[in-house]
UniProtKB/TrEMBL annotation:
One of its GO terms (biological process) is negative regulation of DNA-templated transcription. It comes from Channa striata. This is SAM domain-containing protein. Keywords: Chromatin regulator, Nucleus, Phosphoprotein. Residues 1-74 form the SAMD1-like winged helix (WH) domain.
Length: 420
DNA sequence: TATTGCGCACCGT
DNA sequence: ACGGTGCGCAATA
C-alpha cells in the first residue's frame, strides 16, 4: 500500500521539480514529499531507493550532481525515437529503453560498467552509494553552501543523509561538488547504510581532476563505484573504454559468457552508451548485456531489493535458459541453470517480478504487475489474455512482455518440471 | 523564509 | 535547429 503511495508521491515530486526547472535531487525530493505529504525524509529516501532498484526512478549523475528521473518519462522519450526500432526488434527495444536509451550514459557508461559484481553484492547500494553520497554530502556541505538559494536545512538534510547514507558512499561525484573529500563516505551512519556501503566505494578523488567531466558530464554513479575506472577522467569520456572492464566484472556465469562475447566482438558498441546520464545500476548491466547480444534476449539482472544473491544468480541463469529456448538451446549448462531458475521463479515475490520487468525495460508495466500483486507463482499462471488485458497496460508492451518474458519464463519453468 | 516560476546557457542529437 | 536540463535570480506565498 504505502509503497504505491510513495511511488506516486515521489514521481510526482520529481515531475514537479522538473517542471519547475529545479534539479530533482534527494534533498529537494525529500523536502517536497515531506511538505506535501508529511513523510519523513528517511522514509522517503528508503522508498526512493526502492523505486530506483526497480527502475521506476532512475538515478543519474548529471552535471556533476545527482538527479533522479522519472523512468517512465525518460523512456517514453527514448521510445519515440526508437519506435521504429521497437517495431523491428521489440525485445531489444525493451532492453534498450530500459538501459540504454534512457540510461545510457554517455560518460556514465563506464560507471555502470563493472557494477555487475558489485551489484551482486548490493546493487542498490552501489549505485546508491555513490549517488547518495553525493547527495548527502552535497546536502550537508556543499549543497547547502553552494546552492546559495537553498537555505540549508540541516535537519532535513541530516535525516536525509541518514537515509541516504546507506547509499552513501561516495564521493565520486564530481569533484567539485563535494568539498569534503573523505568525509562523505564515512558518514554512513546508519547501519542500514552501512550494509550497503561497501567499503569499496571510497571516494577516490575521482575526477576531480577533470572538472570538465564533472562539469557536464554525467556519469553514472556506478562509475563512481569503481574507483579505478573513474579514475581516468579521460576514460570516462571515452565511454567505451570502461565498459569492457565492466563486463568482466560481471560475475554471474551468464554474464560472463556475455562478457566474453562482447569482448571478443570487440568493443561493443559504445555507441549505446552514448547517451548520457542515466545509469542505473541495472540499467548499466542491461546495457552491457544488451550491447553484447544485440538483439537477443539478454540477461536481465534482477534488481535486488530483497534480492537475493540466489536470485541474481538465477536471473543470469535464467537469461541463459531464455537464450537457449529462443535460440535453440545450447545444452547442459543451460538445463542445469534452468532448474535453478524455475525453482526460484516460484519464490519470486511481487517485488522481484516488478524488478524483473523493470530491468527488462518495462518499468511502467512493472508497476502494473506490482499493482496486481503478481508474484512468481502468479506469473506462472498468467495467460496471454491476462497480460494483454488484465494488467491495463498498453498492448504493444503487453505483447512483448507476454511473448518474450512471461511465456518464456513459463515454458522454461514447465520444461524443467517435466524433466524433474 | 520557503516555494515557485522561469530566463538563459549549455549540451547532445 | 531542437529538446532536455538545471543554475541563478526574481516573484510570490
Amino acid at each position: 500500500m504505502s509503497e504505491s503511495k510513495y511511488r506516486e508521491w515521489i514521481l510526482d515530486t520529481i515531475d514537479s521539480l522538473r517542471s519547475r526547472k529545479a534539479r530533482p535531487d534527494l534533498e529537494r525530493i525529500c523536502r517536497m514529499v515531506r511538505r506535501r505529504h508529511g513523510s519523513e525524509p528517511d522514509r522517503t529516501c528508503a522508498e526512493l531507493e526502492k523505486l530506483i532498484q526497480e527502475q521506476t526512478v532512475l538515478k543519474v549523475n548529471y552535471k556533476g550532481s545527482i538527479s533522479y528521473r522519472n523512468a517512465a518519462k525518460v523512456q517514453r522519450r527514448s521510445r519515440k525515437k526508437d519506435d521504429a526500432t521497437l517495431a523491428m526488434a521489440s525485445r531489444r527495444s525493451a532492453v534498450e529503453e530500459a538501459s540504454h536509451s534512457d540510461l545510457s550514459n554517455g560518460d556514465s557508461a563506464f560507471g555502470p560498467v563493472d557494477q555487475d559484481e558489485e551489484d551482486l553484492e548490493a546493487d542498490t547500494s552501489v549505485a546508491m552509494d555513490t549517488d547518495s553520497n553525493a547527495d548527502e554530502e552535497g546536502a550537508d556541505e556543499s549543497r547547502d553552501g553552494q546552492d546559495g538559494p537553498s537555505p540549508g536545512r540541516t535537519y532535513e538534510d541530516a535525516s536525509v543523509h541518514c537515509a541516504s547514507v546507506r547509499a552513501v558512499s561516495a564521493p565520486c561525484s564530481p569533484s567539485g561538488t563535494r568539498p569534503g573529500p573523505g568525509p562523505g563516505c564515512s558518514l554512513g551512519s546508519g547501519l542500514d547504510c552501512a550494509t550497503f556501503q561497501k567499503a569499496g566505494e571510497r571516494p577516490s578523488s575521482l575526477p576531480p581532476s577533470s572538472p570538465r567531466a564533472l562539469a557536464h558530464n554525467d556519469w553514472a554513479y556506478d562509475s563512481a563505484v569503481c574507483p579505478a575506472e573513474r579514475q581516468h577522467p579521460g576514460m570516462q569520456r571515452d565511454k567505451a573504454a570502461v565498459k569492457p572492464a565492466i563486463h568482466s566484472a560481471t560475475s554471474s556465469p551468464t554474464a560472463l559468457k556475455n562478457n566474453m562475447k562482447k569482448e571478443d566482438g570487440g568493443k561493443v558498441e559504445e555507441s549505446s552508451i552514448s547517451s548520457d546520464q542515466l545509469v542505473p545500476d541495472y540499467a548499466a548491466r542491461l546495457d552491457e548485456t544488451k550491447t553484447v547480444s544485440d538483439g537477443q534476449p539478454q540477461t536481465l539482472s534482477l534488481p535486488s531489493d530483497n534480492c537475493t544473491f540466489n536470485k541474481k544468480m538465477d536471473i543470469s541463469s535464467f537469461a541463459e535458459a531464455e537464450d537457449s529456448l529462443l535460440n535453440g538451446g545450447k545444452g547442459d549448462e543451460v538445463s542445469v541453470k534452468k532448474e535453478n531458475m524455475s525453482q526460484n521463479l516460484l519464490q519470486w515475490t511481487v517485488a522481484d517480478v516488478a524488478s524483473y520487468f523493470s530491468a527488462a525495460g518495462f518499468p511502467e508495466q512493472a508497476v502494473a504487475f506490482r499493482t496486481q500483486e503478481i508474484d512468481g507463482k502468479s506469473l506462472l499462471l498468467m495467460q496471454r489474455s491476462d497480460v494483454l488485458t488484465g494488467l491495463s497496460i498498453r498492448l504493444g508492451p503487453a505483447l512483448k512482455i507476454y511473448e518474450r518474458h512471461v511465456k518464456v519464463l513459463q515454458r522454461t519453468h514447465f520444461l524443467e518440471c517435466e524433466d524433474l
